[in-house]
Amino acid sequence: MILQESKSFVSFVKSFMLRHCLFPPSKKAFVAVSGGMDSMAFLFIIASIAELTKGCLEKIEVLHFNHGTREGNKAEESLVKKVCDSLGLECHVLRPEKALSNLSNFEHSAREERFLAFDSFLEKGDFLYTAHHIDDSFEWSLLQQMRSSEAVSSLGMPLVAGKRVKPLMCLTRAQISSFAKRSKIPYRSDPSNKDERFERNFIRHTIIPSLRVRWPQYLKHYSYRSNSLARGLGVHRNQGQGALLRFVDKNGGVFLALPEGHKHLYPFEDQIKSEIKLLSGKERGVLSLQVQKTCEAHERGKRGPLLYSGNVKAYVFPGFLYLLSEKAQNCWVELDDSGRIIEGLESGVRESDFDFKGLLFFKGVPLGERVPSKKGYRVVKFEKYHCLWSKSQEKMMEKNILLVCYAKDVLFKNP
After folding, report:
1. Dihedral sign computed on CA atoms, order 376, 381, 386, 389
2. Exposure string over 313-341, b if 16+ CB within 10 A, otherwise e
3. Residue 397's closest CA among 330, 389, 350, 314?
4. Are 19 and 267 in contact (CB under 8 A)?
5. CA–CA separation, 372 vs 379, rounded Å?
6. Mean pLDDT of the chain
7. What pTM, to 2 d.p., does this model score?
């Protein structure tokens, strides 16, 4: 199974899948496994992810297609079945209905028959996972640029095409190879992958090595460029997911709440980045990694504050973010310094007094007393210095009063 040091690698793929909504609605996925390095590594990765995300992926079955065109096919089939048995996964072995070895367009015909057979297993809401990665997409992009003048096809392989999904499109071949070696994952190499009569192999073994020597960062730039172009063409995976609900309080703080049917912030990274830029007043700044970490913090139940460029801060709640510009932060600092918060909480503040659009309210509870529940809200605990009003909280603790935050339960609404 996956080694301890490879858990972060698996978590990276899991986060990518969450970010781009790559888990099947039915929670059942079929995995195409050839027996080669990429698909065998992916089989171990997705089996581990299924263990980590019981609510997202509950059933995995393996599909192996034995073309019967060379001696190694039988050994590949045997290996895939053996590994599936060790992982406790059901394996379906498929064979062609007609001979393929003598066809002039073997590569295309084999792929068509293989996926036709795979698709026959899929029911409503199921996904078919394949182990294609960034290198595969780059090779396909170069090939399409030689064959076609269409902009979309030159972007490379789509992350999702109908029910066919490629969760390893966040990894390079070198990263997968390193993972497979480190985890001692068994696989068999297909000698036909070196046959340069096939166009993809010609690009892989003749053209790309020269590019790699001259421009070692070519895959990184390809990935960023393709994502940028995909957004410009309106075909990016995270477009069309709707938008976070937006509310602004009287101090200029911005709430971004998940729309109905969503549990993760990942599909809305672009909107979060736009809001941060708007609040900071700066169009430039490196935000992609910071926003990814924000989405991860939401997954882990972290509260913040998180600091972005332009001195924008974010507090994380179940299902929404509270973003504060420097001006909005100063408003709350003034309120904190004034003592009005303690006065209000001690006298029984009304929920509307702090104007959080019904998403948040705070309450003072004497230490030792049970924190009262409220229908439709969750109690969100803050560390001492993670609170919006740290001075007031400290003074309240001196008076044996606990500052309790109630957050609107936008993820799991009460009926």
Report:
1. positive
2. bbbbbbbbbbbbbeebbebbeebbeeeeb
3. 389
4. yes
5. 9
6. 83
7. 0.67
Residues 170-222: pLDDT tens digits?
999 999 999 999 999 999 988 777 877 778 888 888 999 999 999 999 998 88
Asked whether 61 and 92 are in contact (CB, 8 A), the reply is yes
**Hey, what amino acid is at 3?**
L
d(CA 266, CA 274): 14
| 28 neighbors 173 (Cβ within 8 angstroms) | no
DSSP state of 159: S
Domains along the chain?
A: 4-233 (3.40.50.620), 241-415 (no CATH)
Kindly write down the DSSP assignment for every residue of 315-376, as one continuous string.
EEETTEEEEE-HHHHHHHHHHHHHTHHHHHHHTT--GGGG--TTSEEEEEEETTSPPPP-TT
> What single string gives the DSSP state of each residue in 271-308?
HHHHHHHHHHT-S----HHHHHHHHHHHHHT----EEE
Query: Cα–Cα distance between 103 and 109 in angstroms, integer?
Result: 8
Structure tokens at 58: 């509950």
Token code pair at residue 364: 């003072």
Please state the separation of Cα 361 from the chain's center in Å.
31
Q: Within 13 Å and on the Cβ side, how many CA atoms surround 304?
A: 25
Query: For residue 49, what pLDDT is reported?
Result: 93
Take residue 345 and report the two structure tokens written for it: 């909480």
Residue entry with tokens 């703080």: 253
- Helix-helix angle 7-19:288-300, to 10 degrees: 100
Predicted pLDDT at 352: 43
In the three-class reduction of DSSP (H, G, I as helix; E, B as strand; rest coil), residue 74 is classed as: helix
Closest to 413 (Cα-Cα) out of 319, 350, 321, 322: 319
251-303 residue pLDDT tens: 888 999 888 778 888 778 888 988 998 898 876 556 777 888 888 888 888 88
> Does the pLDDT at position 120 exceed 80?
yes
Cβ contacts of residue 119 below 8 Å, gap of 6+? 128, 163
Q: How many C-beta neighbours within 10 Å does residue 391 have?
A: 15
CA 396 to CA 280: how far, in whole Å?
Answer: 32
CB 10 within 8 A of CB 45: yes
